[in-house]
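User: Round two. Same drill as before: sequence, then structure, for each protein.

Assistant: Same drill it is. First protein:
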Amino acid sequence: MIVHVHQYRDGDAKTTVEQGDEVVSQDTQEYFDKDELGPDEGWTQFEYGDRVIQRRGVTYDDVTSVSLPEELGEEGGDLPGTDVQFIVEGGNEFVENVRIVEITEDPV
């Protein structure tokens, strides 16, 4: 199966700093003279209630099973999504704070 999810995390302090009523943006090009920093690639920020959080789309190939382990789901939290376990090529992969967007069969 091919599984596409949206993963969520708290906003990163290095990308936005609040000072009173004014929000100061710290984009990577301005502060580091680079277009990308690597690990944060693909994350986009948006408002969620009264705070800023980040989301990225992730696609997993060759998934044989998707489950929501009970012990992982109990933690809850205030981010969208839940914890999910994928079995990919015989190994377990746990992903936190995701919403499943689409699950499709591998093309033959």
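Second protein:
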Amino acid sequence: MPIHDWPEGERPRERLLARGPAALSDAELLALFLGSGTGGRDAVQTARELLGAHGPLRTLLDRNAGELTRLPGLGPARSCTLVAGLELAKRHLAARLEQGEPACTHPALVGRFLQQHLRARPQEVFSVLFLDNQHRLLACEDLFHGTINAAAVYPREVVRRALVLNAAAVIVSHNHPSGDPEPSQADEQLTRELQHALDLVDVRLLDHFVVGEGTPVSFAERGLLSQRQSRLFR
């Protein structure tokens, strides 16, 4: 039965308008992006089959547009729409940090932004958020790229970029492609070295996020930063 023949209270679009997007399942949200089904199936059935064969949702949407195009039920137009939607969400989070929402008062927002930015990377990437003296975002830069389990990070380069951008504070982050966001001893040692190097030029290290599956781990929330620095992020 086509979706437009379903009872009004069961149609994804009408349910979203009445109850908000959180009321919809992954398949229903995906169906709204697809717009219509394929092979005689409605959009919800097509979405369920996509998720069943190529999901769950995070696994499906971590693919790039070229990979999505090759999946049944998608094509260039739909794949580009999905990837564009994800990029819009990422830019929306960045805009909130750029336009007056201080990072120091929104650690959960920072964590979501960094999760979107780093989670799907197949290799370790070390990223830095450079902030002004009101802790608004000046720039997000991927400074170092590594392998599937390591990236060489040079504190001197982080300091150099902070000075070039006239940053008053930074938040650093990196991903664990294994999916385990638990910080390693090497991560903790690197954070201490970064704090020391940044202290020398009066730039504050507000936090270090490790991105994997689930919620990113915050060094500040774990108490893994010095008392002076971690207090600034609360």
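The longest strand covers residues 137-145.

User: Perfect.
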